[in-house]
Amino acid sequence: MSNNLSIIMYHYVREINKSNFPRLNVLKLSEFKNQLDYLQKNYNILDFEDFIYFIKNKKKLPKNSCMLTFDDGYKDHIRYVFPELIKRKIRGLFFPSAKAILENVVMDVDCIHLIIASISDNKILIKKLDLLCKLNGFTEVDIKANWKKYGIATRFDTKEIRYVKGVLQNMFPLKTRNKILKSLFKSFVKSEPEIVSKNLYLSQKDLKVLLDNQMYIGGHGYNHLWMKNETKSVQKKEIDLTLDFLSKVGAKTENWIMCYPFGSYNRDTISLLKKKKCIAGLTVKLGVNKIFSKNLFELSRFDTNDFSK
Q1: Pick from 43, 2, 4, 7: which is nearest to 257 by CA?
Q2: Strand partners, 302
Q3: Can you give the residue ranges of every domain in the chain?
Q4: What is the pTM for the complete model shown?
Q5: Which of 74, 108, 120, 222 gets the most CB atoms within 10 Å of its CB?
Q6: 3-state secondary structure string, 187-224?
Q7: What is the spatial distance between Cα 307 and Cα 60, in angstroms, rounded to a whole number?
Q8: DSSP 8-state class, residue 261
């Protein structure tokens, strides 16, 4: 027995040869199956009910425990992930973005992914982005400052991609950012957002299928905000909208789990969640959790891209 818990984070999982966006950074279905083979052989895969039981009863976990989490509510999760989990009798934890499902829109974070995936030459994208920034009041000094701030390679992205993501994720005012995103989406994705949204995200019917098969649906915000950048009142509204969504689709609203969009949170976030009967929060920090060390609202996860294929 142990107190250690590894939580695995998944996003896109698909057959890339069947994708409308073949350059999108995804986990291939074959690789997902390989990972499940490995996890089933070497780990005890817990579901939501197991997690709640061990937390509530303050019991130690089985050795090599892990949970599988799926962020953002992609259609991939019902097309490819769900059948594989059912076949293996695994119950995963799913965290969809509410607005995408209820309002049939493409979330900003996915607009950025799809724009990047729609063009093979990053220089063309950056040139267009910088031009749009200048047309909307940004100076050369601003652009150089953004390169210095965001143009830093990570373990997943080149410095060019980090620059594009950083600018488009953090640009203010929001009205300007939305205008530039819309222009880039129209130029490079070349599809109507409503059609893209319908094909990209789970439907309410899909969520019912997941729930009916004892998968867990948790909170991932309504507008997919960087919570640490928001006031306490905005965070409260976002959490309330999240709970309204969970209630609407028939998911649990007591002892529920919040998966922070972008892994972003602060003390206000945690305080508000505790008042709303939330039991844990998932970050994007890397590492294994000792779940009884009073860090239930700052649980770390491994991104599937951290694993060798």
Answers
A1: 7
A2: 8
A3: 4-106+202-306, 119-189
A4: 0.94
A5: 74
A6: HHHCCCHHHHHHHHECCHHHHHHHHHCCCEECECCCCC
A7: 26
A8: G
CATH class of 4-106+202-306: alpha beta
Strands (E), the chain: 4-10, 13-14, 27-28, 44-45, 65-72, 93-96, 216-217, 256-259, 278-282, 289-290, 302-303
Cβ atoms of residues 183 and 149 within 8 Å: no
Contacts 24+ apart (CB under 8 A), 184-191: 184/111, 184/115, 184/125, 184/128, 184/129, 184/132, 185/106, 185/111, 185/114, 185/115, 187/128, 188/115, 188/118, 188/119, 188/125, 189/111, 189/114, 189/115, 189/118, 190/118
The whole-angstrom distance between residue 249's C-alpha and the CA centroid of its chain comes to 19
Burial of 136 (0-12, 13-18, 19+ CB in 10 A): middle
CB atoms within 10 A of CB 56: 10
**In tens digits, what is the pLDDT along the chain, a chain of 309 residues?**
778 999 999 999 998 776 778 788 899 999 999 999 999 999 999 999 999 999 999 889 999 999 999 999 999 999 999 999 999 999 999 999 999 999 999 999 999 999 999 998 999 999 999 999 999 999 999 999 999 999 999 888 899 999 999 999 988 888 999 999 999 999 999 899 999 999 999 999 999 999 999 999 999 999 999 999 999 999 999 999 999 999 999 999 999 999 999 999 999 999 999 999 999 999 999 999 998 767 999 999 999 977 754
